[in-house]
Amino acid sequence: MRLLHTSDWHLGRAFHRVNMLGAQAEFIGHLVTTVREREVDAVIVSGDVYDRAVPPLAAVELFDDALHRLADLGVPTVMISGNHDSARRLGVGAGLIDRAGIHLRTEPSAVGNPVLLTDAHGDVAFYGLPYLEPALVKDEFAVEKAGHEAVLGAAMERVRADLATRAPGTRSVVLAHAFVTGGQASDSERDITVGGVAAVAAGVFDGVDYAALGHLHGCQAITERVRYSGSPLAYSFSEADHRKSMWLIDLGADGSVAAERVDCPVPRPLARIRGPLDDLLADPALARHEDAWVEATLTDPVRPAEPMARLTERFPHTLSLAFAPERAPDDPLVSYARRLAGRSDQQIAQDFVAHVRGAGPDDRETAVLREAFDAVRAHDAVREVAR
């Protein structure tokens, strides 16, 4: 069975205030063409269909168009909700849409109920694991601690229990939206570190033939059978070096996996340039970026006059301007920035306690800080779901 694995469409999202709807529509057209020309048997979309819980009308219309075009091809589509989606809104009408071959899986309680598709070699069971917010689903999965690994592990136990009841030789595919250990993140994924450590081990997916992941925006293989498709478009300059693509997966009769990357259309290349303003304006090596979306970081020791106006004369699509003045190593601003670089909210708070009191927090106080940060994130997640 040939599968096309994609995720993280983020319909309705802008790129530094640039409307991406046209590029997203071009991607949908490319997806439909790929399904038709490469004789795809099933499309799998692993979450974050929309960019926010209440998407703009134009994004909803584009999604509706995508569903109609896929249904017209007669190719089944299985999709789950991600952490950006409203599971309730995305799942409206799922029972009716099911009849058209579009299978929306947004309910945590249904993770053990697969979509069954059949080819010449027998059944393939598709299990949809929507994004599982630990604070919201811990009771559903009867876990003591609301952590990502605990709830995802409990969901996979239901998957394996159902799979054990299927006919021998039934192949299995899991769709999941999670941060799996070993994955390379970018700046454009929303933090999901509620319940402590967000990452889960790839071994949680043991026992299934293919795990189609969503959440991380870079296309990558964690193992041969556990892969992220990544987002079809770049949504931050940290993705400047990404090759945006989808996975074309051939699932063999014996459950073997053969994977091929299918490139996505690029609306405009991204470039990150850095240096003194005069150098950026004069460097002939930067001519290749003159038609790109540009993030410029100026290192002038003193902020130059009208930097954006001057930059856009050469790089008309400059979208982001930052300043990182080159300073002496003993400059207090440099040392402060270095202390903060790469540190989590928890670590910064612990450093603040140490600075004010002269000694860092003990184990009990560290746990209180962690619980406070988790409570804030859980509150934000509940509020997002309720929107």
From TrEMBL:
Keywords assigned: DNA recombination, DNA replication, Endonuclease, Exonuclease, Hydrolase, Nuclease
UniProt entry tagged with the keyword Hydrolase: yes
Pfam families, sorted: Metallophos, SbcD_C
Gene Ontology process terms (BP): DNA recombination; DNA replication
Ranges where the Calcineurin-like phosphoesterase domain occurs: 1-218
UniProt GO MF annotations: 3'-5' exonuclease activity; endonuclease activity
CDD domains, alphabetized: MPP_Mre11_N (cd00840)
The keyword Nuclease appears for this protein: yes
All copies of domain Nuclease SbcCD subunit D C-terminal, residue ranges: 267-355
Family: Belongs to the SbcD family.
NCBIfam families, per database record: sbcd (TIGR00619)
Function: SbcCD cleaves DNA hairpin structures. These structures can inhibit DNA replication and are intermediates in certain DNA recombination reactions. The complex acts as a 3'->5' double strand exonuclease that can open hairpins. It also has a 5' single-strand endonuclease activity.
Subunit details: Heterodimer of SbcC and SbcD.
Protein name: Nuclease SbcCD subunit D
